[in-house]
Amino acid sequence: MCIYPSTGARREAAVVEVDCLLVAEKPSVARSFAALLHASSAARRLGGPQYYLTEFSGRRWAILGLRGHLYTVDFPEQYNKWRSIDPKQLFYIKPITKVEKGCFTLYKLLREFGRYAEEVYLALDGDSEGESIAFEVLNTVKQVNPYAEFKRLWFSDTLPETLKRALQNPRQPNPLLADKCFARMEIDLTIGAAFTRFLTLAVEHRAPRAIPFGKFLSYGPCQTPVLYLVVQQALKREQFKPEKFYRVVAVLRINGQIYEAEHVEERFTEREKAERVAERARQALYGIVESFKERDSIKSPPTPLNTVELQSRASRYLNMRSKTALDVAEALYQAGLISYPRTETEIYPKDLNLRSLLQSLARNPSYSTFAQKLLSKPSLMPTRGTRDDKAHPPIHPVRSESEYQVRRRFGWLGWKLYDFVVRHFLATMSDKALLKRQQLIVQIGGEQFKVSGVRIVQPGYLEIYNYEIPQEKALPILKRGDLVEVLKIEVREGETEPPPYLSEAELLKLMDRLGIGTDATASQHIQTNVERGYFYIENKRCIPTPLGKALIKALESVKPELVRPEVRAFIEREISDIPRGIRTRQEVVEDAKRIFLAYYDEVQGKEDMIAEALIPTLKESYRLAAEKAPKRRRRIRRF
Questions:
Q1: What is the model's pTM?
Q2: Does the domain formed by 244-301+433-495 have CATH 2.70.20.10?
Q3: Which of 45, 52, 275, 626 has the smallest set of CB atoms within 10 Å of its CB?
Q4: Is 274 within 8 Å of 411 (Cβ atoms)?
């Protein structure tokens, strides 16, 4: 069942009859197609979206950009009364689709143009979500024009030559790929809504004012296993028992540079023993070099960049939240600066002209020297990973742009990410770095101390990819018998440290390995947990609130499968079978509902235990989440 807005309103008289209609997923992509077809912008009507009209190849075209999904999935209105509907009923209700709030004018405009179009070009993003939006457009047009011919355009960047190629080589829309997205939407809506209402009502019945107005206790079949991973690491920290230790450290001056050397025993469990060692060493003014060794070490350049690596490395190297990184990458893609940022591929396709891209970057002052060096190679041998989704290439720059231009359009964050993508791309075609791992053993007062260092012999890719330059200082070349000056001998007390909280980069990698979510949705599952007050991110680390920990502990105690990643991974595998024709959308949805309905039956009746675990944590967790919420940043301009 599908609900549409009323069409009794006055039709837009200004909408003209067209032969071809091209629908893009975003206004910026529509603008790129309009420029390709030399279209002029039509005036806005009734405060609605902008569209483009043109004459091309003897036919009249209209070009329209959407803003993502045209429809949303929801339950019929009568089932949205939380307090009068048993959440269990949602497992038996078929969700409906209805026009997204704010998309009514787009919906009407699409019908008006679609009414006359002989051909409809579906220029949506090249993934399962884009395919699902393509079918939303297709079904909307078919309501008013059953005779239209639909052509799917597939492209990985918005350069004119790429869009032209897509227009010349359209595909057939793929209903199985769209069903992959539609199945996930229905599964997540049903399971998420049922358990979210269950948790919220369980607390409200016992403490009506415990949950602030407008908030609720959410559950998600992807969101909650992500929280589980964060909480499990936090619990390891809590269970950790620190132990004291003592280190004997010598401060040395070698060739005018200051170095710290540690006793070869490293950690002493008894202070007295450490003090005796230090006292013997303090008798000497100089240390004698016993040995100096260097061994070769090869550091390989990174493999081509996929979505998970983009988000993970942006978090680690740029201190950029994963969702922010994906949002910025999307803006850069729409502006034609980088390729499509949602990809699993780690292998450059054979038809990607790497030399042409290098020639473009060689004209950019920020990269010219290094790009010229790569161009001087007789052949380019880029690194390669193992994954290839056969849909899009790895993320790479498609147009060279100066720092000034990028910063003017996208701000500092835009430049940081664009610069990172370019440097990563250049690094994948670069030589390995040759390092020398150094170890120096010095005898001081009869005790042995060691110092480690790293010397870069051939920087290779590190010349452009400075994010991975080793932090250790290089040691001067020494030989046995050389003397080094001893400035100080210290005994330093320390404690064994607990395992750190998961970093956002580590969490993204875990989610990818365990099959939680998709490359495009992973950052959103993290962000949802943050918005719900289940954990916050501080110094790149994911720290659960008392509510987040209580929720996982309570659900795991009554039904571990509700929080464990393995269940979602199983569902994701079934969802992935849909585009391969192994399972149907309906079969996968019914399987997932059956599994979670059985879980619901097991936890029903245990509301008291769950609520009692959650209620004491609510106030503190909401306060903490609000306190740790990041300051609002200036929005990235969309092009």
A1: 0.85
A2: yes
A3: 626
A4: no
